[in-house]
Automatic annotation (TrEMBL):
Coiled coil (UniProt feature): none
A Pfam family of this chain: CHAT
InterPro entries tied to this protein: CHAT_dom (IPR024983), TPR-like_helical_dom_sf (IPR011990)
Taxonomic superkingdom: Eukaryota
Gene3D superfamilies xref list: Tetratricopeptide repeat domain
Protein name (Swiss-Prot/TrEMBL): CHAT domain-containing protein
Residue intervals of the CHAT domain: 532-828
Length: 829
């Protein structure tokens, strides 16, 4: 009953309960019991259904494991064997569609052929087995180009349709599958009768599916695909209208898998852009698509699960924003970038948002939301089931997952209730442009730069203005951004500025890195590559923006102070040093620092939230906690961290700042977390490690353990002000999640710090000391004269600007020198 209800409604709670019940049935059934294969088969089917809803590969692995065990435990000649072979083949085929592993589809076809062979003519299940076999043959042909397999697929699917009476519930599925194979053969042969028949059978599939059925969006999307193929062949406007109508109906359907609906919304938008580029419906299509992202990577999943889902839909927000800029809709571009980027950080922020406005209307409701938010925040870090766990462990974790899902439903119901209150109709909904333009900093603009395929645009946001200033950047492109990223990455690797370990015999000098192994360099390495990147960024991207927003060069020599400027880049631009764009060779040298004091922000709301929610710290918490870890296992010694921390601590005491210093073995990870609660600012001088495969395991390395990003994201610090991460590569994200800001600096912002100093790559030990000590010297010197031990990081951006300028005065403009000062970056307010 639960599975049947899910098939109609797509309600995840039904699936969760089904899995729980079936797991217990397997657990309580002894090995060798006649009913065990049946229970395993049923459990596998539930996991397979959930994979279809969530796209989570671990569910598919669980399904295959259970279904294989069911097949192996079923005696030859059993009437249940064909059904179990068919189910196993279906799951293997789905895994092939995700992973592309040919052995999976080969095994799927083998299992499904056996299922067909073992099923007598006239059996009620034969059409289903034939259709599923045909779909696997179609998938294999689609990948390999095997024409004979496609012919066999069409034959099997045609037979499935012929054997199925009108009105039978599975007929729409068989018709849609047949349409897939006919459409693929048309792509190969351009035989018009194939595409005509494909459209006909897919129209029948839609017509035979009740409104509100969970599979209707998939049938509509398939129909839209066939219409598109015929339109591209005949250029008949009626086919274009058919494609657009099908995609739209699928995208806005009230029920259906969010992934299918999102795919339909994207095809709806892209088809409009390609053939009707001025259609106002483009805005509706992308509005629909962006609204679906939150359903695909929703609160019911762990943080790790959400990041996994997001990898598959990366790039949607920049694509939508580029389309909006093409329509001269900078307001929509801003809304979509905020809604579709840094999704997980935005969700964490929503769970931790102040509820003062709501409390003024309904104290009890506000408290309920706060309670559920805290539980959801904790649940996001729960463990996930692994295929090699015991069944008892899996059941326990699945119970936690069900509770997590229940919390998500409670959260959604509470939000609905809050939104019925006048003036709170948009409570915790994506913000419109008008709201995003409020609470901008007075000290300078935020510049969002969007790059996607063949266009690049900037959106400059100024306090006091209603809409962003749209700045087209026709000389720059995604191709150039990617090329610059590749050049810079190559240069970093040449210098081993991406590596963590160091030879213990290496002499520590000014350029020995915190977490790298220097490689003997040929002295004839040419200078141009990095200079070319920085010049291109300056001439084609940054300088046109500065000109458009009216920034002029300041004369630092006479004490002029540049204004603040926040960079909010997208895609591969997130890995490029925009703050260092400039010309560093020849007579006409100039760069960003001649015009502005640069900071970065993952999103606009990261800054506006901090402007809006200016808070005073508890007097007891204001202060600076410092820790150094020069010698950790499997990493180079960085003795400068000890000197650095001791020097800063001494100056803090001399300045009357409340400070605490713990070195090496004096501090554990737990102690660090405790001090982060009791001190408003923290200075971490240690090794840092970015984990590309598991971003949430990126970490700071201590003498006693490590502090991981996943742990940092659990924090909700009420008195956090400044974090100085004097470690390597703390602000570099993961390439597949370039728009999610999955790095240690962003993690500190999510934990509550108002501002963070980080590094884009490994830093020199001596350079790290110099920048840190000059940074704090600036802050101590510019204290407001209070004598209560308070410490304030408000001037941290200017302090970092001052510190890097001091470092640059000792250096030339060789690439070696550029790599020394460029990595230091400021995030936040």
């Amino acid at each position: 009953m639960l599975i049947r209800r899910f098939e109609w409604t797509g309600e995840l709670a039904d699936l969760a309960e089904s899995i729980s019940v079936r797991q217990r049935a397997v657990e309580f059934t002894p090995m060798g019991h006649a009913d065990l294969p049946s229970y395993l088969n049923n459990l596998g089917n539930s996991f397979s259904h959930r994979f279809g809803r969530t796209g989570e590969l671990s569910d598919l692995s669980e399904a295959i494991s259970a279904q294989q065990a069911a097949v192996e435990g079923t005696p030859q000649g059993s009437i249940d064997l064909p059904s179990r072979l068919n189910n196993l083949g279906g799951s293997l085929a789905r895994r092939f569609e995700r992973s592309g592993k040919l052995s999976d589809i080969t095994e799927a076809i083998s299992a499904q052929k056996r299922a067909v062979e073992l099923t007598p003519q006239g059996h009620a299940n034969l059409p289903s087995y034939l259709s599923n076999l045909g779909h696997s043959l179609f998938s294999h042909s689609q990948r390999t180009g095997d024409v004979s397999g496609l012919t066999e697929a069409i034959s099997a699917q045609q037979r499935a349709v012929e054997l199925t009476p009108q009105g039978q519930a599975n007929l729409p599925s068989y018709l849609s599958n047949l349409g897939s194979s006919l459409s693929l053969r048309f792509e190969r042969t351009e035989d018009l009768p194939d595409i005509n028949k494909a459209i006909s059978v897919r129209q029948s599939a839609v017509e035979h599916t009740p409104k509100g059925h969970v599979n209707l969006p998939a049938y509509l999307e398939n129909l839209g695909h066939s219409f598109t193929l015929r339109f591209l062949s005949r250029l008949n406007d009626q086919d274009l209208r058919g494609a657009l109508s099908s995609f739209k109906d699928a995208a806005i359907a009230p029920v259906g898998p969010p992934r299918v609906k999102l795919q339909s919304a994207k095809r709806w938008a892209r088809t409009l852009i390609q053939f009707l580029p001025h259609s106002p419906e483009i805005v509706l299509a992308f509005d629909t698509a962006l609204a679906l992202i939150g359903l695909i990577a929703g609160f019911e999943q762990t943080l790790r699960g959400r990041y996994s889902q997001i990898q598959d839909i990366a790039g949607l927000a920049p694509e939508a924003a580029a389309a909006a800029c093409g329509l001269d809709r900078g307001d929509k571009a801003l809304e979509w970038l905020e809604q579709g980027r840094c999704l997980v950080l935005g969700q964490l922020n929503a769970l931790r948002t102040p509820l003062d406005d709501l409390r003024a209307h309904d104290e009890e409701l506000a408290q309920s939301i706060a309670n559920v938010a805290k539980q959801l925040d904790d649940a996001g870090s729960r463990a996930e089931s692994q295929t090699d766990m015991s069944l008892t462990e899996k059941i326990t974790l699945h119970d936690e997952a069900r509770a997590h899902l229940d919390l998500t439903r409670q959260w959604e119901e509470l939000l609905k209730t809050a939104r019925t209150i006048p003036s709170l109709e948009s409570f915790l909904m994506p913000m419109p442009c008008s709201a995003l333009m409020q609470h901008l900093p007075d000290s300078g603009p935020i510049v969002v730069i969007n790059v996607y395929q063949h266009r690049c645009d900037a959106l400059a946001l100024f306090a006091g203005r209603d809409k962003p200033l749209l700045i087209p950047l026709p000389s720059f492109s995604l191709e150039k951004a990617s090329a610059h990223r590749a050049i810079l990455d190559c240069q970093l690797r040449t210098r081993n500025l991406r590596v963590r370990e160091v030879d213990v015999d290496t002499t520590i000098d000014e350029f020995s890195a915190r977490g790298m192994r220097p490689v003997p360099l040929e002295r004839h390495i040419e200078d141009p590559p990095v200079h070319r990147v920085l010049r291109s960024l300056w001439e084609e991207l940054v300088k046109p923006i500065l000109d458009a927003i009216g920034f002029s060069r300041v004369d630092r020599a006479i004490g002029e102070m540049p204004p603040r400027l926040w960079w909010c880049p997208t895609g591969p631009l997130s890995f490029l040093p925009l703050h260092a764009a400039g010309i560093y060779r020849g007579a006409n040298r100039e760069g960003v620092s001649d015009y502005a004091v640069s900071s970065y922000t993952p999103t606009v709301s990261t800054i506006t939230d901090r402007v809006k929610n200016l808070r005073s710290f508890d007097a007891d918490a204001s202060g600076l906690f410092l820790t150094s870890h020069p010698n950790v296992s499997n990493a180079s010694s960085i003795p400068g961290t000890t000197t650095e921390v001791r020097s800063i601590f001494k100056r803090a005491e001399e300045s009357g700042v409340r400070a605490l210093k713990l070195e090496g073995d004096e501090m554990s990870v737990a102690e660090c977390l405790e001090r982060m609660q009791s001190f408003s600012s923290i200075h971490l001088a240690c090794h840092g490690s970015q984990n590309a495969a598991e971003p949430l395991q990126s970490r700071f390395l201590f003498h006693k353990g490590s502090l991981e990003l996943g742990t940092i994201l659990k924090l909700n610090l009420k008195n956090a002000d400044l974090a100085f991460l004097s470690a390597c590569q703390t602000s570099t994200g993961e390439e597949k999640l370039s728009d999610e800001a999955v790095h240690l600096a962003a993690g500190m912002l999510a934990a509550g710090y108002r501002r963070v100093v980080g590094t884009m790559w490994s830093i020199g030990d001596q350079a790290g000391q110099d920048v840190a000590t000059n940074f704090y010297e600036y802050l101590f010197t510019h204290r407001d004269g209070t004598s209560d031990g308070a410490f304030d990081g408000t001037l941290s951006a200017h302090a970092l600007d001052h510190a890097t300028q001091q470092l640059r005065r000792r250096l030339d403009d060789s690439e070696h020198s550029l790599f020394t000062w460029i990595p230091f970056v400021h995030f936040g307010y």
